[in-house]
Specification:
Layout: E1 8-13, H1 16-25, E2 30-33, E3 38-39, H2 40-46, E4 56-59, E5 62-64, E6 69-70, E7 75-79, H3 87-91, H4 93-96
Length: 109
């Protein structure tokens, strides 16, 4: 890996965020220079994505909450609410983002 690529991150969006990224940036992944670590929420702000449009992020293939710290060289993807099926539990969405209003909630009776 070159020194220059060590200072960059790859950013993607899933579902409707993919279409928004393609419309705004033309191609995926979006390559962004990153001089210092940043949280997922801060990165969303940089990309002007409202937090209620993000349920979790993937960082290097693993589900993380929005407060997870992203480092230069990481691969990041934003996932909006609405991913169907058992994947939500299997991939760890439910446990990663309980404080996020966009997260799926189990209603207590």
């Amino acid at each position: 890996m070159s020194e220059q690529s060590k200072q960059m991150i790859e950013v993607r969006g899933f579902l409707h965020l993919d279409a928004a990224f393609r419309k705004k940036y033309g191609k995926i992944p979006v390559i962004m220079n990153l001089d210092k670590p940043i949280t997922g929420a801060e990165l969303a702000e940089e990309f002007e994505i409202p937090l209620d449009e993000i349920e979790v992020i993937f960082v290097n293939g693993f589900v993380q909450a929005l407060d997870y710290v992203i480092h230069p060289g990481d691969r990041v993807a934003f996932l909006p609410p609405g991913c169907p099926g058992p994947y939500r539990i299997a991939l760890g969405f439910y446990g990663k983002n309980q404080d996020n209003e966009a997260n799926f909630k189990i209603k207590k009776k």
